[in-house]
Write a structure and sequence with these properties.
The protein is an alpha/beta fold. It is about 40% helix and about 20% strand. It is built from 7 helices and 6 strands, in the order βββαααβαβαααβ. α5 runs parallel beside α7 and α6 packs across α7.
């Protein structure tokens, strides 16, 4: 079975539009272990909904000195392109990424390969809920929910658990259109 590098990421958003990020957490898995982690607040250059601020603890004041997505992209892009993207409910995070790339006129690649730990979990563990907090309780993984660094690390730990339990996670690789 081919071993890939996995780039597990999670984004937090400032409002219900879900088209900008206010934080990003990235956890890199290589050779079956976490090898790198990256976290940044992101100034979304848009308004915050009270719901999102309450959920994530991130407000306009919190991100006022944080880089915009466009300013952060040169730092995270080499990591993002270094492996298969992975997220818990991946289509959400990938959609936010696509919106940010489009909003800032950043051309990247037209498609990306990805894994979704929710989709894998539904196949491997049918009959249970697959919310991130539920999966973390099931596996005994520490989680500060809706904190991008913690969520990406927890998702990485879930993926590693699936792999340790013998799942061929690569059979779940899908393609997402970015442009």
């Amino acid at each position: 079975m081919a071993q890939y590098q996995y780039v597990v990421f999670d984004v937090e958003t400032p409002n219900r539009a879900n088209n900008r990020m206010s934080a990003v957490g990235i956890t890199v898995i290589r050779d079956g272990a976490v090898t790198d982690e990256l976290y940044s607040l992101v100034n979304p250059e848009t308004h915050f909904d009270a719901f999102n601020t309450e959920l994530t603890g991130i407000s306009a004041e919190t991100v006022q000195d944080a880089p915009s997505f466009a300013a952060l992209w040169p730092q995270i892009e080499p990591v993002m392109r270094s492996g298969i993207l992975v997220a818990h409910n991946a289509v959400f995070d990938l959609s936010v990424l696509r919106h940010c790339l489009r909003s800032y006129g950043i051309s990247w690649k037209p498609y990306t390969r990805y894994l979704c730990t929710v989709q894998i979990g539904r196949r491997l563990l049918p009959g249970m809920r697959h919310n991130l907090d539920v999966m973390c309780r099931h596996y005994g993984i520490a989680l500060q929910h809706h904190q991008a660094a913690s969520d990406s690390r927890a998702c990485a730990e879930i993926l590693l658990r699936y792999m340790k339990d013998g799942a061929d996670v690569n059979s779940f690789i899908r393609t997402f259109r970015l442009i």
